[in-house]
Design a protein that fits this description.
2 domains, seven-stranded antiparallel sheet, allantoicase activity, purine metabolism, 42% strand, Jelly Rolls, hydrolase, 1 helix, eight-stranded antiparallel sheet, Galactose-bd-like_sf, mainly beta, globular, Allantoicase
Length: 328
């Protein structure tokens, strides 16, 4: 597993925002965190020149750098950064660096302090996904991209593990499988069309592409995805959402759970699913678990998986300490 398998904490889809940039003359800063891949159409000119799907500053005639600040949609531990210069060939910045900080509340950009360098000034290549691994283990809420001296960047991806603030959660009723709460995908059988991270992403899926979809199986097996829960808890309600999946929803699904080193226990027996439907199933038996597994039969796509329940005392202690240990 590489850091690219972690969700993009900065994505607009997850609530990220580019809160400030010192310059955006040629292309607006908001493009930096669009979830979609960059696109380019030749000879598409506006009043300021060729239209780029990215952030582009003017040619600098003084000073030494341009900057943009991004508020992460999901605060967390940064595992790696991708500075994508797609389609910027004669106008990309030759160097860039990334800093991060952690802030409480809702500060304005000029109130942010305590910046820590997570990617030192490094050379960039044009029309390239420039990837940088990050070893810092602190929880951050904002990042600052600096480009030297100017130019264009198509996308900024900040891959990492979300770490939720326990002060804003109800431990007696929470989604134990939510990405934003610290749950994470452990493994899956197939991710041909889209990432299984989409299954546990915040909010509803706006289109089919924001769910998890597998290739068509040509054997007698079935597809599945396993995940580590936000912390040890008891699942009481299962939500299987096939919204937007009409001709390619699974025919059936089942859900099981387990503790870290224990055997898998069935929570939901194999149930028939309907296309484009939000299914809710109550769990009658109470099982403490740290892991869960969704099996779909035989294949297909699902928009969201929600596992509603409560944390055990052990789970609450771990959840809070995980947050405290990662504060700068």
């Amino acid at each position: 597993m590489t850091f690219h398998d972690n969700p993009d904490l900065a994505s607009r889809r997850f609530g990220g925002s580019v809160v400030w940039a010192n310059d955006e003359l040629f292309a607006e800063r908001e493009n930096l965190i669009k979830a979609s891949e960059p696109v380019f159409q030749t000879y598409t000119f506006g009043h300021k020149g060729q239209v780029y799907d990215g952030w582009e500053t003017r040619r600098r005639r003084g000073g030494d750098a341009d900057q943009a600040i991004v508020r992460l949609g999901m605060p967390g531990v940064i595992k790696g950064v991708v500075i994508d210069t797609a389609f910027f060939t004669g106008n990309y910045p030759p160097y860039a660096s990334v800093e991060a900080c952690s802030a409480e509340g809702y500060p304005s950009p000029d109130e942010l302090t305590g910046w820590t360098t997570v990617v030192p000034r490094s050379p960039l290549a044009g029309d390239t996904k420039n990837a940088f691994e990050v070893t810092d283990t602190q929880r951050y809420t904002h990042v600052r991209l600096t480009i030297y001296p100017d130019g264009g960047v198509a996308r900024l991806r900040v891959h990492g593990s979300p770490v939720a603030d326990p002060n804003f959660l109800d431990f007696d009723h929470m989604d134990l499988a939510a990405l934003a709460n610290g749950a994470e995908i452990a493994d899956c059988s197939n991710k041909f069309y889209s990432s299984p991270n989409n299954l546990i992403a915040p909010g509803p899926a706006a289109v089919m592409g924001e769910g998890w979809e597998t290739a068509r199986r040509r054997d007698d097996g079935n597809d599945w995805v396993s995940l580590r829960l936000a912390a040890k808890g008891v699942i009481r309600l299962i939500e299987l959402d096939t919204t937007h999946f009409k001709g390619n929803a699974p025919g059936w699904a089942s859900v099981s759970c387990a503790e870290a080193s224990g055997e898998w226990t069935g929570l939901l027996s194999r149930q028939r699913l309907q296309p484009d439907t939000r299914h809710l199933f109550r769990v009658t038996e109470q099982h403490e678990a740290t892991q869960a597994r969704l099996d779909v039969f035989p294949d297909g796509g699902m928009a969201r998986l929600r596992l509603w329940g409560s944390l055990t005392d052990e789970g609450r202690t771990l959840f809070v300490s995980r947050w405290q240990d990662r504060l700068p």
